[in-house]
């Protein structure tokens, strides 16, 4: 297998990796995204990252590079949509970055990249070739990716797996997507911190809330468990995957893997039992960039 180059474009950081023939990282570099400086600046940061990767790898970039992005490419117009890095929305990202790099670029949603990497290299690598995996990004936003039979499933409109913008609380908090009460407004990291702040009038980081023993912290985590279970059950009822893998900062919270959450999911699943493994990622925070590189493997 050829060496694979991938880039994970996040809201706060851009990471690049070069994988060797055995899918081992030869080069890994991170830069700040600096998205506040605008779309064109973000493109230039990617170019800078690729240049640094080439310098460390001691070779020119290959003819094709994979890039994972927040949001997805609109299959009709070719522009980015649904990105919580707002400067990307409505922009012809793929054609613009190809012009700057003078190379083919394969672009996919960051949650899809996460799911692909975890299936091939992480927690799902022992599953059968016919298995279905639902990979979750649960952090600043809420996204998802689906791998079926070893391949990413995008859907007719390129939005397969976007469970973060299903309605969870009717008439709930407004979401950047224009609707209210989306899953993302309830169980994302910022949503949980807002809920705690509304209870106490104080700001507290999510990690401290998760480890806190005060009443407000317990209520915040109990709310996460309840609504995560309800939201995920809707996906289970439609997709019935062989495994669910949770990535992102919220995915580090131990309470998500408790029996209480399994009871919450089971109470909404259209079945007599809930037996699907719900697991942590095997690749830690590496999955997104590894998945971007894997986009170029086929």
Note down, in words, how this protein is organized.
With about 300 residues, this protein is α/β, with parallel strands linked by helices. The protein has helices at about 40-55, 95-100, 110-120, 185, 190-200, 205-210, 215-240, 260-265, 285-295; strands at about 5-10, 15-20, 25-30, 65-70, 70-75, 80, 105-110, 130-140, 140-150, 150, 245, 280. About 35% of the residues lie in helices and about 20% in strands. β1 and β2 form a beta hairpin.
Précis, in short:
The protein has 298 residues and is an alpha/beta fold. The chain has helices at residues 39-57, 93-101, 110-121, 184-187, 189-200, 206-211, 215-239, 259-266, 287-294, and strands spanning 4-9, 13-19, 25-32, 64-69, 72-73, 80-81, 104-109, 132-138, 142-148, 151-152, 243-247, 278-279.
């Amino acid at each position: 297998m050829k060496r694979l180059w991938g880039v994970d474009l996040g809201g706060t950081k851009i990471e690049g990796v070069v994988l060797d023939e055995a899918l081992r990282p030869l080069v890994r570099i991170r830069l700040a995204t600096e998205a506040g400086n605008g779309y064109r600046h973000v493109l230039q940061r990617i170019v800078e990252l690729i240049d640094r990767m080439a310098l460390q790898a001691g070779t020119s970039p290959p003819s094709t590079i994979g890039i994972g992005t927040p949001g997805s490419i609109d299959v009709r117009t070719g522009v980015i949509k649904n990105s919580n890095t707002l400067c990307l929305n409505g922009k012809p990202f793929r054609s613009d970055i190809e012009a700057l790099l003078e190379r083919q670029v394969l672009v996919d949603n960051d949650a899809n990249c996460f799911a692909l990497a975890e299936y091939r290299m992480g927690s799902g690598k022992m599953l059968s070739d016919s298995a279905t995996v639902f990979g979750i990004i649960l952090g600043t936003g809420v996204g998802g990716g689906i791998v079926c039979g070893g391949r990413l499933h995008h859907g007719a409109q390129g939005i397969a797996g976007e469970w973060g913008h299903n309605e969870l609380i009717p008439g709930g908090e407004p979401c950047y997507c224009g609707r209210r009460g989306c899953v993302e407004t309830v169980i994302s990291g910022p949503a949980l911190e807002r809920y705690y702040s509304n209870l106490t009038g104080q700001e507290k980081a999510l990690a401290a809330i998760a480890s806190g023993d005060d009443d407000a912290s317990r209520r915040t985590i109990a709310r996460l468990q309840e609504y995560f279970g309800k939201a995920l059950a809707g996906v289970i009822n439609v997709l019935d995957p062989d495994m669910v893998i949770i990535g992102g900062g919220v995915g580090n919270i131990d309470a998500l893997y408790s029996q209480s959450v399994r009871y919450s999911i089971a109470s909404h699943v259209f079945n007599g039992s809930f037996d699907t493994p719900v697991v942590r990622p095997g690749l830690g925070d590496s999955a997104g960039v590894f998945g971007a590189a894997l986009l170029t493997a086929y």
